[in-house]
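Below is a filled-in request sheet from our internal design queue. Each sheet records the structural input a requester submitted and the sequence that came back. We keep these sheets so that new team members can see what a complete request looks like end to end.

REQUESTER: design group, bay 2
PRIORITY: normal
MODE: inverse folding
CHAIN LENGTH: 300
BACKBONE (tokenized):
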């Protein structure tokens, strides 16, 4: 322990199929000339393929040590991909830590449940890390972001994802949101633009707010729903005309996976999600409820 206390502790957590080198580089860009202590646990590449709980325990133990050694120093947290999910789980388990947190930054984190994880484990039977990445943590994240200043950063290289995580999947109610075009999932780990955006957030810059209407919030409650890519929006057919001028559109792919989209009155995709076969009935029930409460009267 240094005799001079740092201004803040910067916890930087890497994600799945990675080590801590890129996040350490990002941290060095973030700290600059500030007197801060960087904590970037290396979780071991192979271990990130197995299950998330042991990884959470490792970060938890590390965080507890530093928080004990520096009881009066605030924490700034930056997590890339699964690293952000690890910190959401930790903060959910330790609400007493919240008063110590200056800010939380989630970079390309699949908060709504990674579609890749759901594809690898469609029945949610617990196939390794896929089961953990496919879980929807938006309710946890929304609760945390209501208290801890939270920034979400998403990349977009194909009009809907960073090549790995859909943009929609990263969004968190109560958080601020920044979409960075042309930055892929790996590039977001230590790109100078990411560092600059985070430093702006730390300095007090306000970015776009994440706010969902009642229709999208109802869809979020469908069991098993996963935020999806916007790419199939043009294939979907109008299923419900909403009384705000927007529409709900649906499409079923060749595997029988049901997709749902919410569009603005101008026809822009505002939300995309899908459910597996096990939850198709719950989606239909939600759509019928939305039809009763939000559809233009007199429409089918």
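RETURNED SEQUENCE:
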């Amino acid at each position: 322990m240094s005799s001079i206390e740092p201004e803040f502790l910067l916890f930087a957590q890497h994600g799945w199929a990675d080590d801590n080198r890129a996040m350490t580089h990002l941290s060095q860009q973030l700290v600059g000339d500030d007197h801060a202590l960087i904590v970037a646990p290396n979780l071991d590449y192979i271990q990130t393929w197995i299950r998330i709980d042991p990884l959470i325990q490792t970060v938890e133990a590390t965080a507890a040590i530093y928080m004990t050694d520096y009881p009066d120093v605030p924490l700034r947290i930056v997590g890339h991909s699964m690293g952000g999910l690890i910190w959401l789980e930790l903060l959910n388990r330790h609400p007493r830590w919240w008063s110590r947190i200056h800010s939380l930054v989630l970079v390309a984190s699949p908060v709504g449940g990674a579609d890749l994880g759901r594809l690898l484990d469609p029945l949610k039977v617990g196939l390794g890390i896929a089961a953990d990445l496919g879980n929807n943590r938006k309710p946890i994240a929304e609760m945390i972001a209501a208290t801890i200043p939270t920034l979400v950063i998403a990349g977009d290289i194909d009009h809907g994802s960073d090549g790995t995580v859909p943009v929609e999947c990263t969004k968190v109610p109560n958080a601020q949101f920044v979409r960075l075009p042309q930055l892929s999932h790996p590039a977001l780990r230590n790109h100078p633009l990411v560092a600059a955006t985070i430093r702006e957030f730390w300095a007090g810059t306000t970015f776009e707010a994440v706010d969902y209407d009642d229709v999208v919030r109802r869809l979020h409650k469908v069991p098993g729903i996963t935020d999806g890519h916007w790419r199939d929006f043009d294939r979907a057919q109008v299923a419900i005309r909403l009384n705000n001028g927007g529409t709900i559109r649906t499409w079923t792919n060749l595997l029988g996976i049901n997709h749902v989209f919410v569009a603005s009155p101008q026809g822009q995709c505002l939300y995309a999600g899908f459910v597996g076969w096990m939850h198709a009935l719950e989606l239909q029930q939600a759509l019928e409820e939305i039809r009763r409460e939000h559809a233009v009267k007199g429409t089918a």
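SHEET NOTES:
- The mean pLDDT is 92.
- Residues 8-209 form a domain with the Rossmann fold fold (CATH 3.40.50.1820).
FILED BY: M.R.
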